[in-house]
From TrEMBL:
Originating organism: Claveliimonas bilis
Pfam families per record: Resolvase
Domain (Resolvase/invertase-type recombinase catalytic) ranges: 7-93
Protein name per its UniProtKB record: Resolvase/invertase-type recombinase catalytic domain-containing protein
SUPFAM superfamilies membership: Resolvase-like
InterPro entries cross-referenced by the UniProt entry: Resolv_N, Resolvase-like_N_sf, SSR_resolvase
Length: 93
């Protein structure tokens, strides 16, 4: 039986409540965790989508929108994130 290939997006987000300049240490930690998870589960990582300093209540996050576009065109078929509060679920029709 042929194994499914998961073309994977790593989605990282940190709220703007974190006032640090540049990439936050939380984003760096999320990246390390997600890369390790993808490696351990043999996921084909296509890209990282990072919204550092964006609230999860806003769907106009630049990397989130780019990720949705990549899902819609079939570039990726799997999304990995630290927890669902980072992602916020939307229905894609």
């Amino acid at each position: 039986m042929k194994q499914q290939i998961y073309n994977t997006a790593l989605y990282l987000r940190l709220s703007r409540d974190d006032e640090l300049q540049g990439e936050s240490s939380s984003i760096t930690t999320q990246r390390s965790m997600l890369r390790l998870y993808a490696k351990e589960h043999h996921l084909n990582v296509i890209d990282e989508y990072i919204d550092d300093g964006w609230s999860g209540t806003n769907f106009d996050r630049p990397s989130f929108q780019r990720m949705i576009e990549d899902i819609e065109v079939g570039k990726i078929n799997c999304v990995v994130t630290k927890d669902l509060s980072r992602l916020d679920i939307v229905k894609i029709s």
